[in-house]
Each structure stands twice: as C-alpha cells, then as structure tokens.
C-alpha cells in the first residue's frame, strides 16, 4: 500500500495512443501528455494482415530469409575487368538501351532519362542529331530494359548502350557477374541527361583511353577486392552511396601501381589517374555493382520475403523480392527527395527520385549506414544524431547484420542487412535512402541531395503477391 500511496503523491504524466483528440483535451486542462506514435499493423488492412499472419512467423519463410541473408553476407565481389557492354553483358545488342529503375517506355520517361537516351543514341552513331534521336527512340526499334534485368546497375538515368565501357564485377563466392558504367564526374554528364559535345567527347575518351588503360592495370592486379574497400571506406566516414571520398581514394591507391607496371604510355596513365582521383564519386560505380552482385545471388529463393532490388526511373519506384519471379516488379510513384538544394534552385526544379544507386541501401550501406558517416549530413541535411537514429531504425525492418560492413559509431555493429517486406508492412517503417536530386529538365544536372523512402504500396503489393505464390505452391504440393 505504501508504494501505491507514493505513486499517487508523485506528478503523473498521461500516455495517449491513437487519435490526438485525447492529447489535445488533456493539454487544454494543463496535463502533461506523451502521445505514443502508434499505428495498427499493416495500417489495419485486412488483406495485408491475413498475409502477415501467414508469412511473418512462417518457419519456411524464416529459413528462406536466413539463407538469402547468408548468401548476401558471403558474397565476395571482385572487380575483374572493364570492357564494352556488348562484349560482356549477355543479351546486349546495338539497339539495346538499358536504364535505371523498373521497366518504362520512352513516352513515360522523365526529362533526365530522355536526355540521356538521346545522348546514348548520338554516342552510338545511331542518330545524327537530337531530332533523329527522338524519332528513333519513339520508333519501336530500340529495346529499352532495366539495367537490373541484365545484371547491371546505373546511377541516376542509368543509361548503358552497346559500346559504353562497363566495370565487370565477379561474385567469386557464387559465380555471378554484375556491371556498371564509369562515373563521369560532376557537371554536364549523361547520367543527368546532358548530351552536348562536351559530354559525348568525355564518353568517347572513357571508351578509347581510360577503359583500355584500366583493363591493362586490372589484368596485372588479379582483381580488386571491393568488399574489402567498402569495409575500409565505411570506417573512414563513407556510407558508399552519397559519400565516396574514402572509397575513391582507396581505389586510386590500389590501382595506381598497376598503371605504372602495365605497358601504358605515361601521359595516358597520368590523364586517367588524374581523372579518377579528381572524381570523389568514382567509387559509387564500383560499390553499386558490388552490392548488385550480392543481391542477385540472393534472388530466387522460394518463400523468401527479402528485398533484392530497390530502383527508381524518375517516374516509378520499383522493388523485387527474392521469393517472387525476377521479372516481377512491385511499383509505386517515385517520391520527391527532401533535403538541401544547391544555391539558385528551388524544390520545383527537382525531378522525383531516380537511379539504381539504392542498391547500396538494399545491401545495408548507403542510407542504412549513415550513422557511421557524420559528414554526410552536411550534404543531405539533418544532424549527426538523426543519421545515427536512421541507422538504428533500419534494424527494425531487416533480417540480419553484416559483420563485413560495420558501423564505428554504433560500436562497430554490423550494418542492418536484408530488408524484409513482412517487417516493413507490419511496422509501417520504410527504408531510408540518401540520394542526389536531379533537375527535372535534361542536362542541367544535380540540384541538391537529401533523403527519400519508397512508396508504401511497393511493399504492400509485394507482400500480397508473395502470399499468393506461397498459397499456390502449397495447394499444388498438396494436390500432387
């Protein structure tokens, strides 16, 4: 009884849940109130709740997810080569144009992506001017397809055409390959939709001088261990999506001696190494295929609810799930990025979220590892405390932790890895992505950077589809 009396002699604070009406009424009476941020699982949607009841604690789903994460964590991505896309990407033809995000037609493409397609057609010599390129793009003669469906990834517009050099990454644990173009640097670049003479000249120089030199250096190196470089870069303040200063520096340090040992003219070696070392984002186009190689290996595991792809084309945001067919995308509208704008630009200038670079978050780095990259908040907005909070929140929607990619500010805890659609739908918490903002008009370039999340409907529709797949498989098994 004494404890009860002491309790009511103390100042009490009310805790309210649900509607804010109770909170407001109590506050008007001078009562201190804490409003609990709570919502029913799956937003109370009965179809989603039924799917969760079936999948969330399903033993076969949990076993499949553990297997998927094991494959991701054991991946060993090695940069082994660089060559023209048509020579190394299976199914690539002269009239194939790969793009970022889920499937999209020419007519629906946003400004930056259409500009990049025009640039690619000019670069390939398939069109002589902008008007011819536009006509060809809309003629039906060009095969447009997501990079992700060809084992590739591309930042922003993500355009890959036949003769563009791509880094070749081999997952030596599981044997699969992934591909990504060379990062062009900042300013007027193809990935933001620019296609003037400066852009085309740079692309041709990359193909004619950088790629052969890099190929020779890589041949002598025996391959560059990208998992090791990412792990080191994370300990040096990168999160390997928006901040790649450490990763790019580490790569130059590793590759430079092989440029000196290879039979490369000195002036060529100097130009190539200067180009790489002056481009803080060069490593992005290596961290992306490194993550892609791991995620592709983890795709196609029956019953698994692990997300293996998150990608945006500037119009739609799409995800793919390990336990669903690889050609099955679950989409919703690409969201607007919230963050810091460069001087002279306003929010109305920005295009919705675009690019394949969210493959880094899918693997557990990028925005998921912001807690270990305090300098990134100066670029995307927010505070160091908020960056740490974002990383901690991502453990709520993931299945595992990656000891290869640890976060120093979290006492070297492994990065949250393996987004589970069941946990996303049940908790209502969405993955966090830090990314750059592209101008909505082709060729203007980057206008800022910030944070964004996928649309909720991607995960809702994926959960229902996985539920239907499992139900159908079980019915078929019982009939067999």
Main attributes of the structure:
single chain; 480 residues; alpha+beta; v583 fold; Enterococcus faecalis V583 fold; four-stranded antiparallel β-sheet; 17 helices
In whole angstroms, the N-to-C terminal distance is 65 Å
Q: Assign the CATH architecture of the largest domain.
A: Alpha-Beta Complex
By DSSP (H or I, 4+ residues per run), the number of helices equals 17
Q: Tell me, briefly, the overall form.
A: globular
Cα gyration radius (Å): 24 Å
**CATH class annotation of the largest domain:** Alpha Beta
CATH topology of the largest domain: Enterococcus faecalis V583 fold
Number of separate structural domains: 3
Uncertain stretches of 5 or more adjacent residues? none
Structural class, from secondary structure content?
alpha+beta
Profile the largest sheet: 4 strands, antiparallel
Tell me the CATH superfamily of the largest domain. Answer: Enterococcus faecalis V583 domain
State the total count of DSSP E strands. 17
Which strand order does the major sheet show? 7-6-3-8
Percent range for β-strand residues: 15-25%
Structure characterization notes:
This protein has 480 residues and is an alpha+beta fold. It folds into three domains: 2-36, no CATH class; 44-71 and 299-479, v583 domain like (v583 fold, Alpha-Beta Complex); 78-289, Enterococcus faecalis V583 domain (Enterococcus faecalis V583 fold). It has 17 helices and 17 strands. A four-stranded antiparallel beta sheet has the order 7-6-3-8. The chain has a four-stranded antiparallel beta sheet with strand order 11-10-9-13, sandwiched between helices. Strand 6 (165-171) and strand 7 (177-181) form a beta hairpin. Helix 3 (46-55) crosses helix 17 (456-479), helix 6 crosses helix 7 (130-137) and helix 8 crosses helix 10. The chain is globular, with a radius of gyration of 24 Å. The mean pLDDT is 92.
